[in-house]
Design a protein that fits this description.
By secondary structure, the chain is of the alpha+beta class. The protein folds into 3 domains: about 5-130, Acyl-CoA dehydrogenase/oxidase, N-terminal domain (Butyryl-Coa Dehydrogenase, subunit A, domain 1, Orthogonal Bundle); about 135-230, Butyryl-CoA Dehydrogenase, subunit A, domain 2 (Beta Barrel), CATH 2.40.110; about 240-385, Butyryl-CoA Dehydrogenase, subunit A, domain 3 (Up-down Bundle), CATH 1.20.140. Helix content is about 55%, strand content about 15%. It has 11 helices and 11 strands. It has helices at about 5-10, 20-45, 50-60, 80-90, 95-115, 115-130, 240-275, 285-315, 320-345, 355-365, 375-385, and strands spanning about 70, 75, 135, 155, 160-170, 180-185, 190-195, 200-205, 215-230, 275, 280. Strands 4-5-9-8 form a 4-stranded antiparallel β-sheet, covered by helices on one side. The model has no long low-confidence stretch (mean pLDDT about 95).
Amino acid sequence: MDPIDVAIDLAGLDDLLTDDERDIRTAVRTMAQARIAPHVAGWFERGAVDDPRGLTRELGALGVLGMHLTGYGCAGTSATQYGLTCLELEAVDSGVRSLVSVQGSLAMYALWRHATEETRQEWLPRMATGEAIGCFGLTEPDHGSDPAAMRTSARRSGGDWVLNGRKTWITNGSIADVAVIWARTDEGIRGFAVPTSAPGFAAHDIGHKMSLRASVTSELLLDDVRLPAGAVFPEVRGLAGPLSCLNEARFGIVWGAMGAARDSLATALRYSLSREQFGRPVAGFQLTQQKLADMQLEYTKGVLLALHLARRKDAGTLRPAQVSLGKLNNVRQALEICRTARTILGASGISLEYPVIRHMDNLESVLTYEGTVEMHTLVIGKAMTGLDAFR
């Protein structure tokens, strides 16, 4: 084992994992480091992923797309195994983990839990292999944290549904084959499986991003998109549908953020041991060791929290407020670890020759999406006090 990995697992967290969990982690790490890590800095710099559909098929072949779901070609792994996968993918890049999270925990999970059996059979097997790509349309230009105020609408027209509206900041949007769209109806908010080939559907990439640049982010336009009756999710009404999906994705972020933190910590430790100033390694100075120790503490606590929440999820006892606790803490602390690591690297910390500035930039988006700091703070506050402070 790499001595740096041994140093970072100072608390012996590996001992808390089963052999199967370590095996999946190793398989994902091996693929990610061999097939993605050598290219991701270039993708980030160019703001485009080379052959995103090919990458998705490779991830499908690895078995990580919808891996925590059962049936339809999905692996049916534990929540802990899925969490470890997210950690290893985000140790390479948050954008790659986002691709997998949106595919599996948003689009596939929405179809798996809420769609008709016919729709599941049509899409899920192909999405599990990466042959088909999905996206999840909830956020709108004027309604991010308040999805109940969405303007996208769906109305009945004979036996069909007709959708109109806009969605924005949609990961995978312009490369997706199917979009899960949430819209207002006379019966409340409902979900729809929308083939992106449907007349009236369009997706345009969002440019000028300075974060998550190795990820496809799009705006979706729906102009009288006509769908058959079977496209609607038959049972779920209101925000319970999209929020159930967001909870799945947030769980992956709890783990993923620690991947970015680990990679930044490992980079800072390795750099500090090799970089000499005043005739000695930077790692030998007290202030540097304080930074390393503080990063180690927060990383260790973050992984322990993620593992605790995963065990609860596997036991069926995980509550949404507990996911908010994990998402708020782990992303915030991961971002601080990256910022501290950058100071250890000095000027090299802003270069894409090292991953730290890329992780730091990406986490600025992760801090905001799937619920802002403010929203998760209020979720936790409500769980503690019983008082709703959202409005």
